[in-house]
Amino acid sequence: MEELQALNSCEVFNQIRCEFNSYHNKVKKLNSFNFFSGNESQIKELVRRVNNVLLEHELVNEKMEGEVMKIVPGTNLNQLRGTLMYIILNSVHIKSEEHAIWARWNPQCVHLLNQWPAPLSQLVTVTLALDCGMSGQFLEFLACGSPWLTSQYLDCLNENLSHVITDHFEALPLICGALESVAKSICYHQTNVNLMPNALRLLQRHLLGTEERLSLIRSSLQRHRYLGEAMRHLLDVTLGVVASIDVDLTLPDYFAVYALRLAPPKLKEEQEQAQAEEQQQEQNKQLKQQLVNLTSKLMDTVQRLLPMISVNTYMYWQDFPSGRLILHLQAHIGNQCQQLLQLLSQHEELQKHSLVKQLGNFAEGAQTFEQRLEMLTLGELLSFLDGELGELNEEQLLQGLNQLFKRPIAFGSDECVESMAKHVRLLNVNHAHVILDHLLEVKKLRQLEMEQDQAEKGQQVLAIKQEQMEEQEEEVQMEQDQEHDYYETYDELLVSVLLPIYKNLSNGAEKLQLLEKRQKLHDLRFNLEDSDAERIFFFNNLNYNKENFPMLQFLDLCFVKPLETWLSLAQLAMVHVKFANLYTQIGIKCAPNFRPTLNYTMQHLMQDERLLKQCPTPASQDFLLHLYVLNIQLNVGNNLTDLQLVQNNYLSALAAGMAKFTDTLDYMALGRLLQTLLQLEIIEQRHISSSWRRFKLQRQRVRKMGRGQSKLKLAKKSALLIRKLGWWRSSNWTLTSQLIRSMDALRGNLGSFEASRIQVLDLIVKYHVQNYPRFASSSANESIDELLQTLKHKDLWKDNQLALLLDSEKSLQPKDCASLLARSSSLEAIKLLSDAIRQKVDRAVMNELARAVDLVSGDISSSSASPSAATSYAMNALKAYGFLFKCYMEAFNDVLIKPAKSSDYPCLIEHLLQTPKLLMKDNLFLAVNNLKTLLNTTEEHVGEEKIRQLVNLNLSKKANN
After folding, report:
1. What does each C-alpha distance from 391 to 236, 384, 741 come to in angstroms?
2. Staple 661 to which of 136, 176, 405, 670, CB 3.0 to 4.6 Å?
3. Segment 758-773, tens digit of pLDDT
4. Closest Cα to residue 620, out of 532, 668, 665, 682?
5. DSSP of 375-427, one letter per residue?
6. pLDDT of the residue at 293
7. Cβ distance 662 to 737 under 8 Å?
8. Residues 835/837/841/843 CA torsion (nearest 10 deg)
9. Do 673 and 654 form a contact (C-beta atoms < 8 A)?
């Protein structure tokens, strides 16, 4: 036997017993309340005493409703049920000689019997239940208690209801609640005891169902309201009874508290097995018939109300609440009628009732839940979502949130965003799309406003006084502050609503769709303190294995900071080849979201000197080249403009990096970018070849199979587009102009010579020679002229061309030639020295160079420069001479040695030996190959002394001859 905690003796029972003992002994006998009239004050005193006990133990609470203080149940409903049963068990219907019978029925309540000096009158028991916050428990007792006992209390309630509750509106829910309890009792007990007459007498006596009785309510407005409330409560009961006809009700958990037998009766599956199946079916039939009869009686009652409901009354119902703010009384009744008609259609006997046709007019006024939500004000909708209007299930809550998301003003309201955040677990991908669509619309409106403001300002006079300029500066500052406020408006929405929705999604495709839309909002910021730390932690623990790549977590990071996240992955790819492959694979998989980040990634990578110096040098491992290829692959299927744009972005990023490292004189990083630039033509040629192969292969398939024309057109289009890449690159003004500026900045003099600078200059000149002719033929001369006029070494240009590389028959002046050589690259120096050799002024030029080197050393020594600086300049000048000497040796070999006959070698040797500073160790080493050729020796290693001996010996032989 399960223990019933609600019926255990407790302090509440003890205090109530003491109060009743005291009242019985000092004021009035408990069993002397035969009538309500004349005993009002004594009954109120008993109510007050019981309420004090219940309030002390927090079983009930006081609540102000209007100007009246009401007693409402607390949270411990089970103890409140036990308290009501304690009072009922000690009420007048129980006699001491029946103790043995009670013990046989339910031993768990025997200990509560006969605890008061005399049993309490039933009318006082009913009053205590209704006035002490136990009306709900009293209705539960009518449904679960033994019918022979509950019938007594129904009759008592009928006799005394008008005394206990004088307000006709307050009586309605109690009357209809008693009717509903009777219906439940029929289902729970399945006995032949018929409580329906008791309940109908209660309804007939206390419902104001005639014009005469309705006139008891003096206010016409309140009469309209009463008819609506009566309809609402009666329809509620009718709906519940009809719904229970074909449904087996499950016994509630609290059923045993009100039962007076040890094994309370349950539904048919727990009835005695000995009962014949025919009898059980007959009993079920009788039970359903009782419910049908009760429904019919209720419908009769509703029908009697209809003649009193005028059009005026019906329209007034729109102004009355229905107990839930979301539905006014008229809409609620319409919905009830619509539901009732649907249920009645399943029962042939009930469907024949004449009320069915009459309810059709009311059903036309039904409003769906969504329709009523649309009619709520924003404040009412927030109250609805916060549960202030009643408890909601998740479906209703989600419908309310959907309505809130339809109102754009909600996204900028702190209260609305707080409500969204409170229920964010119910929100899904559709709500995230709504937020992003709203932000995109706001962005468009702001752009339109800015364009209009600029147009208005453009019409103003340009001449502005100094005072007006100061005012403008203040206006600009105000605009910036407003822009900042605009971003702050949606901070909470982004962090508390949008981001949690996104992170809760488990579908990668849905996340990619949202990310694509989010990236259109370039200025969108999530103010999260730990976003950078989270991203760093992610990439510190990232593995290059594609199968184990945490895509969902990666997309979460992209949603917060897409540019920075893709850049972080690219930074790994710059120094690790396997991550470069991963970057490409993930980028292609997320192509729509990946494309907008490429320009940002390229700009940062090509200006990051640390990564450029760590990047692998072989072209096959050059990640910057991978980026170029990836740009082509992702856009080759688009139109010509798109492909040219992405190439221009790549070349612009390259030019920006070159500009930075030219300014900082970071030759290693600058050289790294130039190496990548020189490889682009190879990449382009490779793609041209492969694209034409694909086109020819597709053409063969079309000819063979007779289908695939669309693929053939696409292949041809791709091949034609790729062919234009080289021309676009060569004619790119941003890149070419930066190359010219960098070339100019890298030119120095003898004292500032650096081998690394010359190496970078050689790379620029090499690219210039390969691509400048196409640029010059496609660009306006005015643009080139303007650029050349800004150069420091503009004298090296002639007719928009590098003068040193032009073929010229003009006589070279040794001194001018030496000046040009001091600023030239390797290619230019070889060209210039070759021309000097042909004009037979090379010896004079080299003498001028040697003299210039000596002058640098002398000028520095006589200046105020520090000894270390003087030594550095002198050493730089000697290195510069060594560099030019090397170029001279190459020109000497090309112009003099290669076309010469062996008989000319002695003269060439003599010519070579007269070169200034030849016998310096580094210069002599540079001349070895030429001397070996002229001396007809094949020795691998020829030292300085050996060269001297061979030269002297050869010269003496020739002299003797």
Report:
1. 18, 9, 73
2. 670
3. 999 999 999 988 887 7
4. 682
5. HS-HHHHHHHHTTTTS---HHHHHHHHHHHHT-GGGGG-HHHHHHHHHTGGG-
6. 92
7. no
8. 140
9. yes
Are 501 and 427 in contact, with CB atoms under 8 Å apart?
Answer: yes
- In eight-state DSSP terms, residue 751 is G
Helix-strand-coil split of the chain, %, nearest 5: 75, 0, 25
- pLDDT of 484 reads 47
CA–CA distances in Å: residue 162 to residues 51, 129, 227, 303, 807 = 21, 15, 18, 24, 123
CA pair distance 284, 280, nearest whole angstrom: 6
- Cα dihedral sign for 703, 706, 712, 713? positive
Distance separating alpha carbons of residues 366 and 717, to the nearest angstrom: 61
Question: What is the distance between the alpha carbons of residues 821 and 817, in angstroms, rounded to a whole number?
Answer: 6
Beta bridge partners of 60: 73
266 with 199: CB under 8 angstroms?
Answer: no
Contact 226, 308 (CB under 8 A): no
- Residues 148, 190 contacting (CB under 8 angstroms): no
Residues of the chain with pLDDT under 70: 1-3, 94-107, 191-193, 261-278, 280, 456-487, 616-620, 775-782, 808, 858-867, 869, 937-961
Q: What torsion, rounded to 10 degrees, do the Cα atoms 646, 650, 652, 657 define?
A: 160
Per the CB < 8 A criterion, the answer to whether 328 and 317 are in contact is yes
Q: How many other C-beta atoms lie within 10 A of the C-beta of residue 193?
A: 12
Q: What is the pLDDT of residues 77-107, one digit of tens each?
A: 999 999 999 999 888 875 444 444 544 556 6
> How many residues can be counted in the chain?
961
Instruction: Count the neighbouring beta carbons within 10 Å of the beta carbon of residue 422.
Output: 15
Structure tokens at 167: 């307000």
Radius of gyration of the chain (CA): 50
> Which DSSP letter does residue 790 get?
T
Cα four-point dihedral sign 760, 762, 766, 771: positive
Which residue type does 852 have? A
Q: In the numeric block, which tokens belong to residue 114? A: 């006969």
Q: What is the 3-state secondary structure (H, E, C) of 598-619?
A: HHHHHHHHCCCHHHHHHCCCCH
| 3-class DSSP assignment, residue 808 | coil
Report d(CA 379, CA 388) in Å as an integer.
11
Q: What pLDDT is recorded for position 950?
A: 58
Q: What is the pLDDT of residue 171?
A: 94
